């Protein structure tokens, strides 16, 4: 973690379903904080003492405050939960200098694709793009679009005409992905399975890899690279066989093959994607199933296979 400095919580308000938006200002009386570019994030030492990364979602052109949006994780280990529960106006927090692993490149046109709380880095981009009069479009996927973080703001001028909401990729991929276009970049942020599925669809349509910019959004303590061997999944009810490549989750491989998958957290935390295993042995990477449950069930969003083939009851 880079060196820290203190900031004051200037405002802490509910944002969408289950999130809290924090406004942070300098604690030394300065009217300015260190500058940042859209896509940047900071480390935050949460009230529980754990360090978490959050994208800066406010305007990079307003140096007077940082804005963060914190989602209370269903299986929080205490970081986001303590921020959501305890952050109050006047509280001092330690944060790092902003770092940017997801910079906004120069382009003629921008297609932004957000999955859930992955909206946060894209929000600072949207504010900048709108200010510059750039050509942009946002596809925002959220379980419940009505209560999505920043949904109310994005339904209003000047953003509304450029924003499309959807509850799931099952309702359709962004139509802008169907035709690769020179001079356009895709900025993509959300859960792993979501991003892999969107990237796979864009590459299938012929978008060059360097036109697709991504930032992975998952708690660092659960980061597990999906670099293992490909394997096959047999769907017992239809007999369909799907290959899961080394860089995709079972859920994304199934979705790319057009198969319906229930997803929610996409991080092995909620159990929405759990299905029974009929044959084969899972390599479990979730945090939701007990050891006993893992003997006969698997979380499609994050787990893999120890055997060349897994037969699932679906
Ligand atoms: S979608 Fe939540 S555990 Fe897989």
Automatic annotation (TrEMBL):
Domain (FAD-binding FR-type): residue spans on this chain: 2-105
Origin superkingdom: Bacteria
PROSITE patterns: 2FE2S_FER_1 (PS00197), 2FE2S_FER_2 (PS51085), FAD_FR (PS51384)
Domain 2Fe-2S ferredoxin-type residue range list: 231-314
Gene3D superfamilies according to UniProt: 3.10.20.30, Nucleotide-binding domain of ferredoxin-NADP reductase (FNR) module, Translation factors
Keyword Hydrolase carried by entry: no
Chain coiled-coil ranges: none
Keywords, ordered alphabetically: 2Fe-2S, Flavoprotein, Iron, Iron-sulfur, Metal-binding, Oxidoreductase
Molecular function in Gene Ontology: 2 iron, 2 sulfur cluster binding; metal ion binding; oxidoreductase activity
Pfam family, any one: Fer2
PANTHER family documented for this protein: CARNITINE MONOOXYGENASE REDUCTASE SUBUNIT, NADH OXIDOREDUCTASE HCR
Protein's name according to its UniProt entry: Vanillate O-demethylase
